[in-house]
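In the design runs reported in the main text, the only information available to the sequence generator was the tokenized backbone. The following block is the verbatim input for one such run; it is reproduced so that readers can re-run the procedure and compare outputs position by position.
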């Protein structure tokens, strides 16, 4: 049902605010053009006394999806298809500059040990086998030259290749986008077995207090998934790619423990067009909290809440004691940020004239009846905490429990990698 995780303030249970009418980042499907679609059923044959005219030929069945391969083989298969079949002019001696925007999880938008390893393996492959490409760092200077940009998602799927239930494999989707033409020039697809794959989040995403629908992440995913060579790059992605280069550098600095450098970079992002992203405010919160600047951290978290609710979806992680509805407390006596989070959430939610359904979720570990009861109890606990902070919301809240029916990660590990499965969703409903 849940375990403790080593994250800032202790982060494993998620509280998500979302409008019922909006697209659901946390549960939205991610179709891929390279994934086979069901063939249309042929028209029924009607028996008649006289000879019937010949019916139209039945369309050929679509090819089956690619097989599930060992992780390393799957990465190479997708990358070789992407790089070897790119629709680019062949000019003797010409080299195309390529930058890699760090790969992400196709459901959550987060980066992990596995997605970082994929990026490194693709860079090595390009340098080993594809001399027509010149790999450059993902920096503002390189992006300003309008190079080819490689994007990719790594998404858990079940035995039917769907993003639901227990995940038994991973779908690798790669795209190569030409910033000069504004179009995709190649796609790559493969399925990797789950064995030995390390989906531990990178420090920024491990410690991030929220998850929410963010235009930059949405644009990235839509550029890679549900597209084919020749399609235009999603405009949400193009508009925010320059800011993404600085954010990527800031995330690296944060992961290395260089918090002052990371803070400076995140502050610089705010000055870049389209830099006011969820990842930017999250970075400002994390670095200020690490540096003991509580007032600045509170201000950044308020901006996170404001942006998340304006975007109709916000998720806040709370760490609970195993099998309990009580918040986890640091045994070393460290300060937890929960009061800060609850105050900001209650204040912003109280400004909005809406009713909220609070829905608890758990990971699939343990009996489902127990999961359902625990998810309801935790939803009720969070609901009462919000109501205590903002009494105006008391008559506009209702709690329910979904158990483990709607997992986002679905690996059942009960650690940092599937913290999003243990969440509480706040959905705006009619009063």
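Verbatim output:
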């Amino acid at each position: 049902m849940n375990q403790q995780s080593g994250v800032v303030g202790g982060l494993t249970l998620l509280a998500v605010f979302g409008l019922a009418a909006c697209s659901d980042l946390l549960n939205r499907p991610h179709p891929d053009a390279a994934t086979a679609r069901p063939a249309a059923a042929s028209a029924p044959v009607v028996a008649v006394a006289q000879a019937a005219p010949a019916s139209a030929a039945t369309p050929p069945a679509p090819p089956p999806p690619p097989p599930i391969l060992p992780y390393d083989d799957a990465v190479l298969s997708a990358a070789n298809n992407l790089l070897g079949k790119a629709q680019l002019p062949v000019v003797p001696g010409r080299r195309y500059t390529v930058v890699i925007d760090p790969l992400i999880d196709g459901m959550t938008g987060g980066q992990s040990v596995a997605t970082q390893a994929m990026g490194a393996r693709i860079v090595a492959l390009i340098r080993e086998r594809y001399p027509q490409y010149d790999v450059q760092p993902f920096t503002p200077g390189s992006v300003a030259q309008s190079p080819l940009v490689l994007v990719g998602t790594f998404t858990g799927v079940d035995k039917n290749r769907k993003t639901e239930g227990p995940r038994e494999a991973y779908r690798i989707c790669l795209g190569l986008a030409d910033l000069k033409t504004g179009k995709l020039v190649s796609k790559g697809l493969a399925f990797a077995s789950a064995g030995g794959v390390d989906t531990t989040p990178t420090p920024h995403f491990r410690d991030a207090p929220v998850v929410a629908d963010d235009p930059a992440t949405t644009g990235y995913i839509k550029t890679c998934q549900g597209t084919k060579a020749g399609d235009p790059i999603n405009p949400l992605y193009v508009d925010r790619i320059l800011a993404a280069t600085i954010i990527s550098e800031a995330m690296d600095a944060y992961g290395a423990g260089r918090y002052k450098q990371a803070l400076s970079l995140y502050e610089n992002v705010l000055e870049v067009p389209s830099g006011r992203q969820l990842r930017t405010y999250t970075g400002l919160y994390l670095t200020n909290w690490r540096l003991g600047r509580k007032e600045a951290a509170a201000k950044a978290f308020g901006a996170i809440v404001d942006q998340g609710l304006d975007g109709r979806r916000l998720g806040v992680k709370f760490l609970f004691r195993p099998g309990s509805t009580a918040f986890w407390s640091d045994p070393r006596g460290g300060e937890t940020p929960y009061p800060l989070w609850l105050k900001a959430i209650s204040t912003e939610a109280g400004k909005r004239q809406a009713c909220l359904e609070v829905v608890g979720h758990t990971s699939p570990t343990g009996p489902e009846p127990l999961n359902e009861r625990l998810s309801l109890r935790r939803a009720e606990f969070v609901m009462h905490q919000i109501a205590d902070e903002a009494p105006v919301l008391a008559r506009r809240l209702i709690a329910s429990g979904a158990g483990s029916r709607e997992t986002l990660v679905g690996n059942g590990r009960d650690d940092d990698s599937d913290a999003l499965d243990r969440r509480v969703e706040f959905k705006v409903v009619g009063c």
